Amino acid sequence: MSTSPGAAITTATDPTSVGLRYTVRLEEAGDVAAIQQVNRKAFSKPGKPATEHHIVDALRKDGQLCVSLVAVVSATAATDTDESTGHKEEVVGHVAMSPVAIGGANNCGWYGLGPVAVMPHAQKQGVGSALIRAAHKLLSASGANGFVVLGDPRYYSRFGYKVTAGITFPDAPKEYFMALPLTGVQAREEEEETGACSLPQGVVRYHDSFYAEIPVEDAEDSPKDNDRRETEQLHDAAAGGSATTH
Fold first, then answer.
1. What is the pLDDT of residues 123-135, one digit of tens each?
2. Through-space distance between the first and last CA atoms of the chain, rounded to whole angstroms
3. Count of structural domains within the chain
């Protein structure tokens, strides 16, 4: 992508909010700690520390963080000072997108949405939606073939996601794993009429960063069911946070 780190993508104000104004921009080097904090706050549950920030860090380290956008509250509305820049601002949201393999094909041009995280006090003000739409726009302009998401169909359907035959994720209920092909509407209509299919077919696998071992300090008290914990970790991160994007 030609857009430089820190460049603003969009500025928005939710008409139903009390004036929260935020700018969506690309991640900068100084945003890492704030992104970790947003993911911790958004995903933490009683008795279950958040682990999504480790996934984002692993994706970044492995060069698989294809899109990393932050929503930043304007200086006049911020409550915290960014220690890395000295500017008074607050990162209130973050979205990540990374490549996925479908049917064993690693270079299929498809990407997974998530994690998506919004600070609790900034939720339900359009921040998550703005982040998702901006991430979609960036990858679409770069020639992406489609996106997948694991999450609530009542929410993600508004972005065009739907259950798509042949694109599967066995570890989740069928209705909660959805795809958004970027082929033209006319092409998709012709495929439905003829039965032909130009979409990739097979099981979706996220990058290995989603399956990484959780650091000891963030692991559950009882580590005996590691397989279950890894599955929950993947589900939570890929879903983008069920309490973060409204």
1. 999 999 999 999 9
2. 28
3. 1
* The pTM of the whole model exceeds 0.85: no
| Ranges of the chain whose pLDDT falls below 70 | 1-19, 75-88, 184-198, 215-246
So what's the pLDDT on residue 148?
97
Is there a cis peptide before residue 153, judged by omega within 30 degrees of 0?
A: no
State the SS3 of 186-213: HHHHHHHHHCCCCCCCEEEECCHHHHCC
- DSSP string for 27-65: --GGGHHHHHHHHHHHH-BTTB---HHHHHHHHHHTT--
Identify the CA nearest to 56 among candidates 93, 106, 7, 25. Answer: 93
Residue 117 is part of which domain span? Answer: 8-239
Amino acid at 120: P
Query: Is 78 within the bounds of a domain?
Result: yes
Does 3 fall in a domain?
A: no
pLDDT, residue 76, reads 56
Q: Is residue 244 part of a domain?
A: no
Task: Give all strands of the β-sheet with 167-168 in edge-to-edge order.
Answer: 101-102, 202-205, 167-168
From 87, 84, 110, select the one nearest 29 (Cα to Cα). Answer: 84
- For residue 119, being part of any structural domain is answered with yes
Q: What is the CATH number of the domain that holds 137?
A: 3.40.630.30
Residues 65, 214: Cα–Cα separation, whole Å = 19
Q: How far apart are CA 148 and CA 100, in angstroms?
A: 8
